[in-house]
Amino acid sequence: MISVEELPTPSVLVDLDVLSQNVARMQRLANEAGVALRPHAKTHKSPEVGRLQLEAGARGLTLAKTSEAEVFAALGFDDLFLAYPIVGADKARRLLALADRVRLTVGADSVEGVRSLGGVFAAAGRRLRIRLKVDTGLHRVGVPPDCAVDVAARIAGLPGIELAGVFTHGGQGYGAPTPEEVARVGRAEARVLAETAAALRSAGLAAGDVSVGSTPTAASAMTGAGVTECRPGTYVYNDRSQVALGSCREADCALSIVAMVVSVPAGDRAVVDAGSKTLSTDPMRPVEDGFGAIVGLKSRIVRLSEEHGVLSVEPGERFRVGDRVRILPNHACVVANLHDELVAVRGDRVEGRIRVAARGKVQ
Ligand SMILES: Cc1ncc(COP(=O)(O)O)c(C=O)c1O
């Protein structure tokens, strides 16, 4: 068995012990809240990690793209929710093929979008399960809560469609300045969605599934009355932004990058061999602060080009060419998506590989 010290740099590491603890903790929270856990697999895109989540008790997985669902279905995952407004007859034909193999549910926020899917299912004598996306404050996609009954009624009346419920993503929690504010966002996310589901039921519409979730808001949203499911994703690896948001401690970050100092051109500047091709350019949340922390030190990466990560060296810290450093990235999901394989470790011992089987699937 080789050690982390012997790995080529940069390499992306996942500590299996920390990963297992993260999986177990979120499952325990969901069990205590009495809701189903349906982790968003966008973070890992990996069958090995998805299986760990199911073995711990997750109901199924969440994905965003039809092509991601195709990868997971081919690997034997049989209960998938595409939490994304899928649109178009070409996608519908692929969803129909998927629905033969898996219990499939798809997100939507428009009558036109659902109509473009329902026609294909109706022609095949089938019905596609749809959850209506409700905007509870992120203002990205989703119908405003006060329009939900109207849109849901029109969707439910379309041929080839079965309305199954509602969902939301409290991503606005990523902008909350304190953990207390994050929790407030999560409680509001749950309340608004549960009220919307109740309004649908009062109008005679089906709204059995009431699905919330992001990593920062998971704990506060999943305990809301009327919530049936939670879909956090990042918790499985965690990252520097989650530490800053108060979702976890630094010790709960399973994913890190081992990189090498390749240049020290000035006393206050050092350069590592992990640039945007390794780390992505995603900003730190909730407040922008460079592109990655150096574990155990104050210096951080303040500038990136594709193969260069430029460190601003803090007074009292010193880097030499050839030093190996451990980087905590701003956002674990985008890092995983940049790599075919991650290195599974326990402490300093290399244990194997984690395939990012559904990486780069955009269609
Ligand atoms: C619709 C949806 N659900 C759930 C999640 C998971 O949230 P997080 O990455 O904060 O765990 C995301 C993340 O982008 C999302 O877009």
Could you describe the 3D structure shown?
It is a single chain. This protein has 2 domains: 4-11 and 249-355, Lyase, Ornithine Decarboxylase, Chain A, domain 1 (Beta Barrel), CATH 2.40.37.20; 18-236, TIM Barrel, CATH 3.20.20. The strands form 2 sheets. An 8-stranded parallel sheet has the order 2-9-8-7-6-5-4-3. It has a 6-stranded antiparallel β-barrel with strand order 10-11-14-13-12-15. It is α/β, with parallel strands linked by helices and 363 residues long. The protein has 11 helices and 17 strands. The chain binds pyridoxal-5'-phosphate.
Keywords:
363 residues; alpha/beta; Lyase, Ornithine Decarboxylase, Chain A, domain 1; TIM Barrel; 2 domains; 8-stranded parallel β-sheet; 6-stranded antiparallel beta barrel; 11 helices; binds pyridoxal-5'-phosphate
